[in-house]
Design goal:
The protein is an alpha/beta fold and about 425 residues long. It contains 13 helices and 22 strands. The chain folds into two domains: about 170 residues, Beta Barrel (Lyase, Ornithine Decarboxylase, Chain A, domain 1); about 180 residues, Alanine racemase (TIM Barrel), CATH 3.20.20.10. The structure holds ligand LLP. The site of ligand LLP has 21 residues, from helix 10 and helix 11.
Amino acid sequence: MTSPSIPGQPHIHYADGQLQVEGCSLDGLATEFGTPLFVYSKASMLAALAAYQRGFSGRNAQICYAMKANSSLGVLQVFAQAGCGFDIVSAGELARVITAGADASKVIFSGVGKTRTEMRQALEAGIGCFNVESEAEIDVLNAVAVSMGKCAPISIRVNPNVDPKTHPYISTGLKGNKFGIAHERTLATYQHAASLPGLQIVGIDCHIGSQITEETPYLDAMDRMLDLVESIEAAGIPIHHIDFGGGLGIDYQGDTPPAADALWAKLLTKLDARGFGQRKLMIEPGRSLVGNAGVCVTEVLFMKPGEQKNFCIVDAAMNDLPRPAMYQAFHTIVPLDEALHVKGSTNGLVCDVVGPVCESGDWIGRDRPLAVQAGDRLAVLSAGAYCMSMSSNYNSRPKAAEILVDGQNHHLIRVRDTMADQMRGEKLL
Ligand code: LLP
């Protein structure tokens, strides 16, 4: 018997009393591969991508998956095979996408601190565009390209000074942020870039923040970007593509971000109205492609009732799931056993779900009603984005294993770290 899927996560549902990702039981996977275990739905990733593809149908658009959200090779392969380009922020990410089979000409390189070595490697690989973030970077990239006898394709990342109305740590398009070139400096910067022999201007770019759940910041940023394109082109510098970045939010806790196709229907209407409908478009979505496709399965180690707080101590921790500790982020947590899910929601013990790491900041969920005991397994939902890619070995904990589910089949896409993995490269005195 199949129960309705988890809200916002159509590929995750209870079937025969157990939580499943597509056609695979999470309990079965946890028994086979151990916990903590990340499990991703391929269908969910492709469905999220399809919403953007629908939104852009009939347009000249390129979707560049912002791989920092989840940079595991198996995940990158899914997007490479679906025809995506990639937004990268380091030579490490470049090496990963090339390994995963990406077409280098569809790779764009963002980030405020590219090193000369990274610039050289990206030029060597033949990437599609450098998203340049400062006037100093322009001169360095020009020098690197000239020294290699190459011309670097660039777009300038503009800081449009628009409030994305999200957590301050993940706002990027406000004046006080380190990202992009100030709106007022943009034209002069383009004029300077156009005079340099090692650079070829191909576009303009912005990215205003992450986990954005309203459409207004996007509409405002688009207006400001189009104003700039008009003034840059009036100065005789053609802008071939406009990159609107990523940032679209997902449903973590009843959040209601616009659907990608609905948002783009509105943005395209504006673009058309302003006469830019035929321009090549680029976007850099990360979270919205993978966030709700993944869960982290963890096992309850101990229940620890207390006078002020009850604790449910699990085997996943802040090294696996850093978002709550870093941003006070909310992830829904549900038992794999549907009966316990039902019992917990009506008659659960309110507890903090915490990991074994020796920090009070090591919590995964606060004040959650749960009817579980040691040995029961829980799924931390919406864990496909910015979890594994931000995980660490803190407390010398191994990085978790990862599974990609495809219908009834599953693929182990990352083996759990061994201690040899963790100590590789270290040397005794
Ligand atoms: N493009 C650029 C230049 C970015 O900096 C980012 C994200 C993206 C695209 C993709 O944004 P998305 O579509 O995923 O929102 N660790 C934080 C999120 C940091 C986002 C950093 N930049 C979190 O866990 O919430």
